[in-house]
Specification:
The chain is α+β, with helices and mostly antiparallel strands and about 700 residues long. Helices cover about 35% and strands about 25% of the residues. Strands 1, 2, 3, 4, 5, 6 and 7 form a seven-stranded mixed β-sheet that branches. It has a six-stranded antiparallel β-sheet with strand order 15-14-13-18-17-16, sandwiched between helices. Strand 17 and strand 18 form a beta hairpin. Helix 1 runs antiparallel to helix 5 and helix 17 packs antiparallel against helix 18.
């Protein structure tokens, strides 16, 4: 008897009836895990509604799937056929994204639930790791007939209930619980020198001997009902939870060692079945007769949680901004994660592969690879890009079979060619290489394949950012003076540094105007905002100041006339500006400020101060505004530092205190080279280099003797 009731059912009983049918199908086919997906009416998506033989937490990534998802059940429904995946290697090859989520050994079948009225969804069955790679005709018959039964149940239902957010979980068979009738067996286990415990499929401890509790270092009453990796701090590592997950999914025995601090090494052997996992615990070095035969091919555990690794790397890739950031991330994190030593990152540009980053290669090798055609047959890069499928080569001989010249290009011994493709558009190619022979495991392939997609997205973003960054700051530089005038006895240097991140055009500007052989005008300012409009206004302000200054206007009139120009332009942007008229022979300076930060004066070694300049309002506020004039005497060889607020406005710090500290730094810094002095001031204010706003500095030193 099948145990399945084929009579029509109402909507309220559908979950229970489907659950019973799935459990019976699991038993009949010898599978360990089963599930049913139904098609959502509102959207072309699949919803997992029934689950058997697996904890529901395991299914979180695939409880809801698009009908177009590259997974076996979606293919089975779209193509109306049985899809069989014989093992982990085949899963990694055909369904790399699914393999990344389930990097375990198992066989899988997916079958559409096609009834008289419609296709309702699909059924998924999974077998333990020791299942043969080929499906038998008898198994195929059981799967087909079971799918037909499930489809008839759905056909006969008067209506489908709303699909649940969480699947209905049913056991494959009655769970064996320790009863009083098992006391003799429990006594037997207690007398053994080794420890024993039992886990249910959720990973909770349902039985534990006193010896096991002693070896684990905690009382049995505190361990029962808990998951070991949560109850014991020394097991709180994703790799140990992955051992449990591997045992549940693959249903194959496995063992591992763990250190219980300070120096107690334990061997834990896991023996899973449909009801749970039996665990045998022995101190390392103590030999005991095997409790059960271990599989000839024990389950392979994904190294230290490949899934967690992929999530970590995906998060790191989202934080990269520039191409350099991306190359550094791949070299620093992705290469070590997969044990690789070499990297070549290329971008597709005008039909060729241009190398934009590398690691672990000689310069002549990179030169020979740079600029290869996108469809090159010199290396597997062209084939990988054309097919959209990664190419893995474990030995030089394996690569030489199809690409005879490729292994001779470098001394590397194994390669992974990862095509970087976005919606069918080639972005580039990422090559990971190894100094030794390297066999790519199924879980490595399963992680590297989706990782290539993430790298492609990051590379596309980074190239766009870099292109915009070059364009924007090229425009910025074009609006700033190309060179500064030279006058006898005057040392001058200036620097503009854009914000460490961001691609908006800044409004900082500076200038040094030669009024005659003995007089200059120093100008520095900042237009409100970061935009094309701010940059355009900055150019107009510079031009206006230049015109008024060279026409002989005094400092206050230069600012007043420029202020009126802003009103005429109706720019709706405010501008800060500091204008200094400097007589080099008399060492006399006259300053006028439109709301700009005051300059610093280093009058002598180890002496510096903030100049007290009476400010006027920002340009663009009041057309009738007046701008006070402040005169100063500048000592011989004194250094004047003009700057914008980006240098001193540090998040979380008082700008006044920051400015005072900057003056102290100016006092103690060497001033032989003004470029080095700028380096010192910027590094003092922003030691990490991650300044949040544009920074502009203009430094002057008058070496003419005083009269």
């Amino acid at each position: 008897m099948s145990g399945i009731d084929d009579s029509p059912v109402g909507a309220g009983l559908l979950d229970d009836v489907l659950g019973a049918a799935v459990a019976e199908t699991v038993r009949r086919t010898g599978a360990s895990i089963g599930g049913v997906y139904l098609i959502e009416e509102a959207a072309p998506a699949l919803r997992l509604v029934v689950l058997c033989g697996l904890p529901v937490e395991f299914t979180a990534p695939w409880q809801r799937l698009p009908l177009t998802a590259p997974v076996p059940v979606a293919d089975a429904i779209r193509e109306d056929r049985l899809v069989w995946v014989g093992g982990q290697d085949e899963m990694a090859r055909r369904y790399p994204r699914a393999a990344a989520v389930l990097p375990y050994r198992f066989a899988l079948a997916a079958m559409p639930l096609t009834g008289v009225r419609r296709c309702w969804g699909g059924m998924v069955l999974m077998w333990p790791a020791d299942h043969p790679q080929e499906i038998t005709p008898r198994e195929q018959g059981h799967i087909t007939s079971s799918a037909h039964r499930l489809a008839r149940l759905l056909d006969d239902a008067p209506r489908l209930p709303a699909l649940p957010d969480q699947p209905h979980v049913v056991p494959a068979e009655a769970v064996r619980q320790p009863e009083r009738t098992g006391l003799a067996a429990a006594d037997y286990l207690e007398r053994l020198p080794e420890g024993a415990l039992a886990l249910d499929l959720e990973g909770r401890i349902t039985f534990i001997t006193a010896t096991a509790a002693r070896l684990l270092g905690r009382g049995a009453d505190r361990l029962l009902g808990t998951q070991p990796w949560r109850a014991l701090a020394w097991l709180d590592d994703p790799v140990y939870e992955d051992h449990y997950r591997t045992a549940v999914v693959s249903r194959a025995p496995l063992s591992f060692t763990a250190l219980r601090p300070p120096d107690h090494w334990l061997t834990l052997q896991l023996y899973p079945d449909a009801s749970g996992i039996s665990v045998r615990i022995t101190p390392c070095g103590e030999r005991a007769a095997p409790a059960a035969p271990v599989a000839a091919h024990p389950a392979v555990v994904a190294p230290t949680g490949r899934l967690y690794q992929l999530i970590h790397l995906a998060a790191a890739l989202t934080e990269t901004v520039t191409v350099k950031d991306l190359v550094d991330l791949i070299a620093d994190q992705i290469l070590p994660a997969f044990g690789a030593q070499g990297l070549v990152l290329s971008s597709a540009d005008a039909g060729r592969l241009r190398i934009i980053g590398c690691h672990g290669y000689a310069a002549d090798v990179i030169e020979s690879l740079d600029g290869l055609a996108l469809d090159t047959d010199l290396t597997p890069a062209g084939q990988a890009i054309a097919s959209g499928t990664p190419c893995f080569f474990a030995t030089p001989a394996e690569m030489a079979h199809s690409y005879p010249k490729a292994p001779q290009i470098s001394d590397k011994q194994a390669w992974a060619f990862l095509p970087l493709i976005i919606t069918g558009r080639p972005v580039g190619c990422c090559i990971l290489s190894y100094s030794q022979l390297h066999t790519f495991t199924a879980d490595e392939r399963a992680v590297l394949t989706p990782l290539a997609g993430l790298i492609a997205q990051a590379l596309d973003r980074a190239r766009l950012y870099d292109a915009k960054h070059r364009l924007v700051h090229g425009l910025q530089q074009a609006l700033l003076p190309r060179t500064l005038p030279t006058l006898a006895g005057l040392d001058v240097t200036a620097r503009y540094q854009p914000a460490s991140h961001g691609i908006e055009v800044g409004g900082d500007f500076y200038d040094l105007l030669r009024l005659d052989d003995d007089t200059v005008a120093a100008v520095i300012g900042d237009v409100e905002g970061h935009s094309i409009a701010a940059a355009a206004l900055m150019g107009q302000v510079r031009t206006a100041i230049h015109a008024h200054a060279t026409a002989g206007a005094p400092p206050d009139q230069v600012l007043a006339r420029t202020n009126r120009l802003l009103a005429d332009l109706d720019a709706n942007l405010l501008v800060s500006c500091l204008y200094a008229h400097y007589d080099l022979n008399r060492h006399h300076m006259t300053l006028a400020s439109a709301g700009h930060v005051p300059p610093l004066l280093r009058g002598a070694p180890r002496e510096a101060r903030v100049l007290d300049v009476e400010p006027g309002p920002l340009l663009g506020i009041d057309t009738a505004a007046r701008y006070p004039v402040t005169p100063f005497h500048v000592p011989e060889k004194a250094v004047l530092a003009f700057y914008t607020d980006g240098l001193v406005e540090v998040p979380g710090a008082d700008p006044a205190l920051t400015t005072t500290a900057l003056a102290r730094q100016l006092a103690v810094s060497e001033d032989h080279d003004l470029e080095d002095l700028i380096d010192s001031l910027v590094h003092h204010a922003w030691p990490t280099g991650q300044h949040t706003d544009d920074i502009t500095l203009l430094l002057l030193r008058n070496n003419r003797p005083q009269p």
